[in-house]
Specification:
The complex is a heterodimer of chains A (about 425) and B (about 400). Chain A is built from 18 helices and 12 strands. Chain A is α/β, with parallel strands linked by helices. Chain A starts with 8 loop residues before the first strand and ends with a helix. In chain B, the strands form 3 sheets. Chain B has a 6-stranded parallel β-sheet, sandwiched between helices. In chain B, about 40% of the residues lie in helices and about 15% in strands. Classes of the chains: A alpha/beta (about 425), B alpha/beta (about 400).
Chain lengths: ~425, ~400
């Protein structure tokens, strides 16, 4: 069946994670994504390589970069040079969508405002996703993953009871912004299909992240109520915690309905705790005696292995999951059966496995993975092929550092 | 009234909980015509999750329900009965996108699998969003946000090493799964525009959570290292530090930001200390470093620190309480929160989360979540042409 976004072309000026997640989804769905970096300013995620033990250029070994940029093409263009921004406009004229996540002043400084892009492509869809949106008093402020995680309230409600707020240690607000950006992309495409109109989407990464705390914010909206930090507790469920198992692993158990509790109580060897009359037989009673419930589940968990316990509880319809680490996830049989991780062979880093997409379409096979491009890999393919520049012109651009494959800073370092 | 960019989409929302309803909400807020279907009396557990207004226990006012069901219609219909099933089939002629929160095989066992839907309408898209997806050995296992955090690699690294692993606060992973389901559904809509065929979209909350965590799997794959649990700080290092009136996120990712931080707190001499030369070294002695820097923040107001840091191009973050979030100046100026009727008190309005982006050519804004069954009569009469007598008869029989 058809690739959902086959034939679609996206010019992607975005960096790090939020914008590139939008275009990763689009690229996996068949869009031609042309990522634009420059020798003067490479994607900052190329340097996000805490785990980089690979050989080769330092800017080519970042696992995060290599994950999020598969199936994309990469060109370099110095947009601060009029020749670079002119070429970018020629590309936009051949594109459907532009994605960028700079602070608002940057695109205008390049001479690439929405109005200027619309002149070369009247129905262009531009998705701008700055930290705080295109207007308002904080429009020029910078933000990244943790800034938006914190300001959306996620940090305030993450942590041990009575303790300070904590980082979630995920990638914070970035994927939240990326997901809302992807929704905006599809919405804008639908609008264009109905009306022929493009538009300039103004996405605030902070607002996007706040979509993910909308339920807890209702309490504040109603009456200023605020649970603060509650560890692993739930306001409505007990047990709702992690328990230390005999093999040293932790097991999460969440139980809400009375029938679930009844089956759990049987597994714990205490069926009497679920019969009518027992203080534990109702959700309210279990919540009021949360500490005793935790002690009961913990006493049992300490005698079983975490995976065995999970399968046993799930077999009885009780929500349970092992606290899995990175290695366990890559070796997990369920994820293997679903072929979640996808293999990518890339220069210098070799063959590695990366998360695929968390959704599958029954009528569409994910494309064979094209490895994340190296810096400027597709300069001649895109600028020569698509824009029809001659070899001579390409050499001139390279001489002026408008295109190339080695960052200016790295070249300067090598020359020292 | 603006109709929004997805005004041509028509959806039947059979889901409950958080992830599925959030998926359908995103489509509805953007203009899709979404009919939420529950059996008479309701079945969505989000009505019990809260938070509730003081003194009100009406399930229609549960914050989890109100938030995840904006812009929808609500009908009561028991699709397990033959009559209910027939009416569902008739709705499917126009409303050809179905959202559900159980696995496809489980729906098929009830005669609601994708093949069943396709027999009624070959354009039918079925989106399922579940804890573990519709296939594989854990398919059908139960989950919620706590279990997602555990199985998706978040909890292992959230918290501190000598204590238990933590969920993140709220229900973030449920909404991540729901957002991915919305993206998958819209991808299926794009494909259908091209070939006319409806697809099954199978979304897994576990996989969505792993994708948003990212680093634990990548760190193992690249370096053979199991990430430790120490989310009281982050790389850079970055910390949440106590100010006079709350916390501030001192976010320092790059070397340039580290040097700016030293200047910002008036400790330029730290830049030249060999022990702090790079991020990896600083992380090794982060407790000592923190102790040197933290006192600077103690007497200052968080908002002032935030705004001043931004002048230094330091991406600090406020750590607002929930009530403070509702009042953030930037939200007010961009009108992110809109006022909606209070579900228990017609005299009052409450701030409600809007859309996270402005689409000037196709504007829309959320309308309040429906009360259970408020649209049953309208939908059965106007959409399916049922006479009032017939509706009463079905109601008496417990079908609607």
């Amino acid at each position: 069946m058809a690739a959902p976004l086959g034939g679609m072309r996206i010019v992607d000026l975005s960096m790090f994670m939020s914008g590139p997640l939008v275009t990763l989804i689009a690229a996996d769905l068949g869009a031609d994504v042309i990522k634009v970096e420059s020798l003067q300013r490479i994607d900052g995620w190329r340097g996000a390589s805490a785990a980089n033990g690979a050989t080769g250029p330092t800017w080519e070994g970042s696992p995060a970069f290599n994950w999020i940029n598969r199936n994309k093409r990469d060109i370099t263009l110095n947009l601060g040079d009029p020749r670079g921004s002119a070429l970018l406009k020629r590309l936009v004229a051949l594109a459907d969508v532009v994605v960028e996540n700079f602070t608002p002043r940057v695109m205008a400084n390049f001479g690439l405002s929405y109005e200027e892009l619309r002149e070369v492509k009247p129905d262009i869809i531009v998705i701008s996703m700055p930290g705080f949106g295109l207007d308002g008093p904080w429009r020029d402020y910078t933000a990244f993953a943790w800034t938006t995680e914190q300001m959306a309230g996620i940090s305030h409600i993450t942590g041990y009871e009575g303790g300070p707020p904590m980082f979630t240690n995920s990638t914070g607000g970035d994927p939240l912004a990326g997901l809302m950006g992807a929704v905006a992309l599809f919405a804008a495409l639908q609008h264009r299909r109905q009306t022929g109109e493009g538009q300039h989407v103004d996405l605030s990464q902070l607002e996007a992240a706040t979509m993910f705390t909308g339920d807890v914010l209702m309490g504040a909206a109603y009456s200023g109520s605020d649970p603060g930090r509650q560890g692993n507790k739930s306001q409505v469920m007990a047990p709702h915690n992690v328990y230390h198992c005999a093999d040293g692993s932790w097991l999460a158990v969440a139980c809400r309905a009375d029938d679930e509790w009844s089956r759990l109580a049987t597994i714990l060897g205490r069926p009497g705790l679920a019969v009518e009359g027992s203080v534990y037989s109702t959700a309210a009673g279990r919540l009021a005696h949360r500490g005793e419930i935790d002690a009961l589940v913990q006493a049992w968990a300490g005698t079983v292995g975490a995976h065995d316990a999970m399968h046993l509880l799930q077999g009885q319809g009780v929500a349970a999951g092992v606290v899995l680490d990175g290695q366990q996830l890559l070796e997990d049989p369920h994820l293997a059966a679903r072929q979640f991780f996808v293999e990518q062979e890339r220069p210098w880093v070799g063959t590695k496995h990366y998360p695929g997409q968390p959704f599958r379409l029954s009528g569409y096979e994910w494309p064979a993975v094209e490895p994340a491009p190296v810096l400027g890999q597709h300069n001649s393919e895109v600028l020569g092929g698509l824009l029809d520049l001659s070899d001579h012109e390409l050499i001139e651009l390279e001489g002026a550092d408008i295109i190339g494959t080695v960052p200016v800073a790295a070249r300067a370092l090598a020359a020292q | 009234m603006a109709r929004g960019p997805l005004a041509t989409l028509r959806v039947l929302d059979l889901s409950n909980g958080l992830a599925g309803p959030f998926c359908a909400k995103l489509l509805a807020d953007l203009g899709a015509d979404v009919i939420k279907i529950e059996p008479p009396g309701g079945s969505d557990p989000s009505r019990g999750l809260g938070p509730f207004p003081a003194g009100c226990t009406d399930g229609n006012a549960s914050g989890a329900y109100v938030y995840t069901n904006t812009s929808k219609q609500s009908i009561e219909l028991d699709v397990a009965t033959p009559e209910g099933r027939d009416l569902l089939s008739r709705l499917l002629a126009t409303h050809d996108i179905v959202i559900a929160s159980e696995t496809e095989p489980s729906l098929a066992a009830r005669g609601l699998g994708h093949a069943d839907l396709l027999r009624i309408n070959p354009r039918a898209i079925l989106a399922t969003v579940t804890g573990f997806g519709s296939t594989g050995p854990y398919a059908g296992y139960a989950a919620n946000h706590l279990v997602n955090c555990a199985m998706g690699g978040w909890s292992a690294t959230c918290g501190v090493a000598d204590r238990e692993p933590l969920q993140s606060g709220g229900n973030v992973t449920e909404f991540i799964a729901g957002a991915y389901a919305a993206v998958g559904t819209l991808a299926a809509v794009e494909a259908r525009e091209r070939d006319g065929a409806g697809q099954h979209v199978d979304t897994s909350a576990m996989e969505a959570t792993i994708t948003a965590a990212l680093l634990p799997t990548m760190t193992w794959e690249y370096a053979g290292i199991v990430s430790s649990r120490n989310s009281n700080r982050a790389t850079g290092p970055s910390w949440m530090m106590r100010c006079a009136d709350g916390y501030i996120g001192v976010n320092v990712l790059t070397q340039a930001q580290w040097e700016a931080l030293c200047g910002f707190v008036g400790m330029d001499d730290l830049i030249s200390e060999a022990a702090y030369a790079n991020g990896a070294l600083r992380l090794q002695c982060e407790a000592e470093l923190r102790a040197r820097i933290e006192p600077w923040f103690a007497g200052r107001a968080a908002v002032e620190v935030f705004q001043e840091a931004q002048l230094w191009r330091l991406p600090f973050g406020l750590v607002p309480t929930l009530t403070e979030i509702l009042g953030l100046e930037q939200h007010r100026e961009r009108e992110f929160f809109t006022m909606a009727p209070h579900p228990c008190d017609p005299e009052r309005t409450i701030p409600t989360v809007g859309l996270p982006f402005h689409m000037p050519a196709s504007p829309s804004s959320p309308s309040p979540a429906p009360r259970l069954g408020q649209d049953t009569d309208t939908v059965l009469r106007d959409l399916l042409g049922l006479a009032p007598d017939k509706i009463n008869e079905l109601r008496a029989a417990g079908v609607c």
